[in-house]
Design a protein that fits this description.
The complex is a heterodimer.
Chain A lengths: L2 H32 L6 H19 L3 H22 L9 H23 L15 E3 L2 E3 L1 H23 L1 H11 L1 H6 L4 H27 L8 H11 L5 H21 L8 H12 L14
Antiparallel strand pairs in A: 1-2
Chain B lengths: L1 H18 L2 H27 L6 H18 L5 H23 L4 H21 L1 H4 L5 E2 L4 E2 L2 E2 L3 H22 L3 H11 L1 H6 L4 H27 L1 E2 L6 H14 L4 H17 L7 H15 L3 H10 L13
Classes of the chains: A mainly alpha, B mainly alpha.
Chain lengths: 292, 316
């Protein structure tokens, strides 16, 4: 295989990887605040994207409006779910909350199927699908667009965490909830904000990826790859989530070139099992020691 | 009281095929098979607080092992077939369980979820053995001179195996091993401090859980008579988790009741496939929010018998 086509494969891997990274970031934001793995994250992405698509169909609006509608829907959905369901279980064990989010994911997927059917729908893209030549390398603008938009969103999130009052509060809660509360931080507000932000990140990822993998009630499964990405980069760490996502995307696109085709679908899962077993702290991180 | 309840249960189980239409005999077999899986899963989740989303994978391994044995070695007694199905699954459980011990609950849940997907992919790619997507037809098994060809015969086989495994599970809690597992459930750190080898007992729970599920898989193959990879998807694993959540974590009676409720519900919702996940999701959310101990603890409260206290939130 030539080097130019290798670059092509790597770039499209980075594009899917960006989506995994965004999904990983959503999961990590929620985890850092409520110490919950949100099994419904992928379904929240799917529902928000569907709402955006409906706006597109009904209003015949431009794509940017669909994005905005999806983002608003995602924010509302995240806020409502956290406020109405998760908040009531906040004193329960992780185990219990995990089951609750699992239940929510089943409900959301089934509800989406009832409203929009379980068919696949084409979704318009901001970027063209026709490859352009950059020197000897042929690249699809859609790949570059996804990578660029994701990076922009990640930078915005980084700025939010670093420089705003809310971001500082979120980091404090992630480190030590009790100490954060004693410092006068409203931990409940951080819960709400985290679910809203995670949901919004998911909606953007959904609008970016829907043109590539089609819009369907199944598209929430991308969250599993997001989890793998987060673990790959040390669960709980934002830079880790980005690196893990990119790595997983490239691995997934390269693997079929070197491995039998039948193994292709198992790649993310095999990566997840391997990394959990060999380096549970992720490729960048250390294993957290549990204290008594 | 307890003895009377047991006697009634046994009488109902034995008389069932003569009192109901054939379809309900088949349904009762399914309930018993699912009860075995739920008990196995509960040994893992109830005692060691580890959640598995991969038990459909174990069930598939047991089912395919039993099916292939029945096809290749038709003369083999069914008890041996089931035992081998259980042991093969337990071996896979050991191979997965040992490295998984290092994982905290959340990661174990995800690793087992991934395991479930990999098993389905493996069944698809080993199509010379499993016939992949075409599915595998399972012939009737033999027990000595008898061929288990009717639903009623298979039902009695399932009931006998289920009873055996329930008695074994009940008796585990009276042994040294059982007390060690109970100690692990109450506090891993305290158990470790009292000399319980945490790693060994967690592995044991994982392997026993896999064994139960493998035997159930073997029975599943014989009772359903046709295996295809899509019967073992991740939603089946979710069903198993739902059974122990609804029934009650750490309770054997709860496992059986949960299996009965979820299996019956699944069956009656067969005509509403699109709404089934919604109803299941609602059941999971509401039982977690309002009935954290499951049916078993609700029964315990009514009859006043001591049951497992609701778990307190961990220090976060």
């Amino acid at each position: 295989m030539t080097w130019a086509s290798l670059v092509h494969v790597v770039i499209s891997g980075l594009a899917t990887g960006s989506i995994y990274a965004l999904m990983a970031i959503s999961l990590v934001i929620v985890y850092n605040a409520t110490r919950t793995l949100n099994f419904a994250q992928g379904e929240m992405l799917m529902v928000s994207t569907f709402v955006g698509w409906t706006a597109l169909q009904v209003l015949r609006a431009p794509l940017i409006v669909a994005l905005l509608v999806a983002v608003v829907a995602a924010a509302l959905l995240g806020w409502i779910l956290e406020r109405v369901v998760i908040r009531h279980a906040i004193s329960a064990t992780h185990f219990d909350v995990l089951i609750i989010t699992l239940g929510l994911s089943l409900i959301l997927r089934s509800a989406a199927g009832a409203v929009w059917t379980h068919d696949e729908f084409p979704f318009p893209s901001f970027f063209s699908n026709r490859p352009v030549a950059l020197g000897p390398v042929r690249v699809a603008p859609v790949s570059l667009g996804i990578i660029g938009a994701s990076l922009a969103l990640m930078l915005a999130l980084g700025a939010l965490f670093r420089w705003t009052r809310l971001g500082r509060a979120m980091r404090a809660v992630a480190q030590n909830q009790r100490a954060a509360r004693l410092m006068g931080i409203s931990v409940e507000r951080v819960y709400s904000a985290s679910w809203v932000i995670a949901s919004v990140v998911g909606a953007v990822a959904g609008v970016l990826i829907a043109p590539v993998i089609f819009l369907s009630s199944k598209m929430g499964l991308v969250a599993i790859n997001g989890f793998t990405a987060a673990v790959l980069g040390s669960f709980g760490s934002m830079p880790g989530a980005v690196v893990g996502g990119m790595l997983l995307g490239v691995l997934e696109n390269l693997a079929p070139l070197y491995l039998p085709a039948s193994i292709k679908h198992s790649v993310p899962f095999l990566v997840m099992i391997t990394i959990l077993l060999v380096r549970p702290g992720g490729v960048l991180g250390r294993v957290a020691r549990r204290k008594v | 009281m307890r003895r009377a309840a047991l006697a009634t249960g046994a009488a109902v189980a034995l008389g069932w095929p003569w009192a109901v239409p054939p379809y309900f005999v088949f349904l009762a077999s399914l309930i018993a098979i699912n009860a075995i899986v739920a008990i196995g899963l509960n040994l893992l989740s109830g005692y060691t607080n580890q959640l598995s989303f991969g038990h459909a994978g174990f069930l598939a391994i047991g089912a395919y092992t039993a099916a292939i044995l029945t096809i290749r070695a038709p003369a083999m007694p069914v008890a041996v077939t089931l035992l081998i199905a259980g042991l093969v699954t337990a071996a896979v459980g050991l191979a997965l369980g040992v490295p998984c011990l290092r994982l905290e609950g959340l990661y174990l849940a995800m690793a087992t979820l991934a395991f479930g997907f990999v098993v389905v992919e493996a069944i698809l790619s080993l199509d010379w053995l499993t016939r992949g997507n075409d599915g595998l037809r399972v012939p009737a098994a033999r027990l000595g001179p008898w061929v288990l060809a009717t639903d009623v015969a298979r039902y009695y086989l399932v009931v006998a195996v289920t009873a055996l495994l329930i008695v074994a599970a009940v008796n585990i809690s009276g042994t040294r091993t059982g007390r060690a597992l109970l100690a692990v459930r109450e506090s891993e750190i305290a158990a470790q401090a009292s000399g319980v080898n945490l790693a060994a007992y967690k592995t044991l729970a994982f392997v026993v859980s896999a064994f139960y599920t493998g035997v159930a898989g073997g029975l599943f193959a014989l009772v359903v008579g046709f295996l295809s990879p899509d019967s073992f998807d991740v939603f089946l694993s979710v069903d198993f988790v739902a059974m122990i959540i609804v029934g009650g974590l750490g309770s054997i009676l709860g496992s059986v009741l949960g299996a009965a409720v979820i299996t019956t519900l699944n069956d009656s919702l067969a005509g509403f496939q699109n709404y089934r996940p919604m109803i299941f999701g609602a059941i999971l959310v509401t039982s977690m929010l309002f009935l954290p101990g499951g049916i078993a603890s609700a029964l315990g409260k009514i009859s006043g018998a001591g049951s497992r206290p609701p778990r307190q939130g961990e220090d976060r």
